[in-house]
Every structure is written in structure tokens, then in C-alpha cells.
């Protein structure tokens, strides 16, 4: 009995697990952007701007600044995901920011200095998926889901 209570008390809600996984992935991507081989044309990476020809996994255009932003975003997310409210804010606000970044990526002329954190078509579509996924997770995941406790009854059933 005491063991069951301890296990339930230490379980994290699904929203925190998702936020931790997303944050860890962002931090990992930030680090991998600095690894030659995983980042193609590594020698052509610039600090910022559209002239950087480096591509993470040969697909996503990156620069030093782009990698640092991913790394910092991931580290902030790891700290925020330690608390339930922080996890929700990280996912919901982060998702909204990625949707804004998606719109920005389509609105700008990518061959100008406005593309200071280089984005290409692959980045834009990834930003769309990340934006909707993070926003949905932050807003829709139930606090008790994944903790082993009873999920609240749906509002449409007695």
C-alpha cells in the first residue's frame, strides 16, 4: 500500500514527460548542429545569416546562432519542465513561437539579411509540425494522464 502511494506520488504527468522529451530533443539538436558529419558542409557554417551552407542531417539549414538558439531553448525547457505549470508554458508558448517562426519563414525573402537565423523549406515545415504539436500538447494533455491516478470524467458523461 505505501509502495503504491509512493509510486503514484513520484509519477510525472504526461505533459511534463512530453515537455522533458521535447526540451531534451532541442538541446540534442543544438549540440548535433556542431558535429561535423551530422551537419553537412560544416566548414561553410557561418555565425548567422543566409550565407551559411551547413545543413543538419543534410536537410535543415543551420548556423552557429541557429544551433545556439536550439541549445538554449532546450536548456530552458528542461528547467521549466520540472514543474507542471512550467511544462505547460514551455509547450504552449514554445509551440506558438514556432508557428510564428513558420509564418516568418514563409514571409521573408530568404536571400536577404532578414534571414539572419537561416531557414529553408525543410525548416519551415518542421516549424509548422513542431508548433502545432507543442501547442496541442501544452493545451490538451490532462494533468493526471500518465500518473497512474484517475483521469477526470469527460464533461459529456455523468
What would a concise description of this structure say?
The protein is mostly helical.
Radius of gyration: 19 Å
Average pLDDT confidence is: 85
- The portion of residues assigned to helices is 55-70%
Taking pLDDT < 50 over at least 5 consecutive residues as the criterion, the unreliable ranges are: 4-9, 153-158
How widely separated are the two ends?
A: 30 Å
Q: Count the helices. How many?
A: 5
What gross morphology would you assign?
globular
Q: Which class do the helix and strand fractions yield?
A: mainly alpha
The secondary-structure element order is: HHEEEHHH
Summarize the biggest pleated sheet. Answer: 3 strands, antiparallel
**Quick one: how many beta strands?**
3
Percentage of residues in strands = under 5%
Q: Which strand order does the major sheet show?
A: 1-2-3
Descriptive overview:
The chain has 158 residues and is mainly α. It is 56% helix and 4% strand. It contains 5 helices and 3 strands; from the N terminus they run ααβββααα. It has helices at residues 2-10, 14-32, 64-80, 84-107, 121-140, and strands at 39-40, 55-56, 60-61. It has a 3-stranded antiparallel beta sheet. Helix 3 runs antiparallel to helix 4 (84-107) and helix 4 packs antiparallel against helix 5. Mean pLDDT is 85; it is low at 4-9 and 153-158.
Helix-strand layout with pairing:
Layout: H1 2-10, H2 14-32, E1 39-40, E2 55-56, E3 60-61, H3 64-80, H4 84-107, H5 121-140
Antiparallel strand pairs: 1-2, 2-3
Helix pairs in contact: 2-3, 2-4, 3-4, 4-5
Q: What are the defining features of this structure?
A:
158 residues; 3-stranded antiparallel beta sheet; 56% helix; mainly alpha; disordered C terminus
Amino acid at each position: 500500500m505505501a509502495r503504491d502511494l509512493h509510486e503514484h506520488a513520484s509519477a510525472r504527468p504526461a505533459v511534463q514527460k512530453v515537455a522533458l522529451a521535447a526540451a531534451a530533443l532541442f538541446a540534442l539538436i543544438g549540440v548535433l548542429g556542431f558535429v561535423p558529419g551530422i551537419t553537412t558542409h560544416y566548414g561553410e557554417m557561418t555565425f548567422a545569416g543566409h550565407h551559411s551552407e551547413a545543413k543538419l542531417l543534410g536537410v535543415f539549414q543551420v548556423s552557429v546562432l541557429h544551433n545556439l538558439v536550439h541549445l538554449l531553448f532546450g536548456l530552458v525547457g528542461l528547467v521549466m519542465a520540472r514543474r507542471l505549470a512550467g511544462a505547460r508554458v514551455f509547450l504552449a508558448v514554445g509551440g506558438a513561437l514556432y508557428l510564428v517562426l513558420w509564418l516568418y519563414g514563409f514571409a521573408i525573402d530568404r536571400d536577404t539579411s532578414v534571414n539572419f537565423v537561416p531557414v529553408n523549406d525543410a525548416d519551415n515545415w518542421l516549424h509548422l509540425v513542431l508548433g502545432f504539436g507543442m501547442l496541442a500538447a501544452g493545451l490538451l494533455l490532462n494533468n493526471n494522464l500518465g500518473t497512474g491516478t484517475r483521469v477526470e470524467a469527460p464533461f459529456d458523461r455523468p
